[in-house]
Automatic annotation (TrEMBL):
Residues 4-39 form the Glycosyltransferase 2-like domain. Pfam families: Glycos_transf_2. This is Glycosyltransferase 2-like domain-containing protein. InterPro entries: Glyco_trans_2-like (IPR001173), Nucleotide-diphossugar_trans (IPR029044). It comes from the Bacteria.
Length: 45
């Protein structure tokens, strides 16, 4: 089974790492993480 997670992001510099780590810690090891950034602040690029 593959897990796909889309994470919308708007000025979430303080929590985005926690969210990604929580997804990576899921029991499903085949996962893709898609972060959608509105480019308000350029910390993800």
């Amino acid at each position: 089974m593959k897990l796909s997670v889309v994470i919308p992001c708007f000025n979430e510099m303080g929590t985005i790492c926690q969210v990604v780590e929580a997804v990576k810690a899921s029991p499903v090891k085949d996962c893709e993480i898609i972060i959608v950034d509105d480019e308000h602040i350029k910390f993800l690029s």
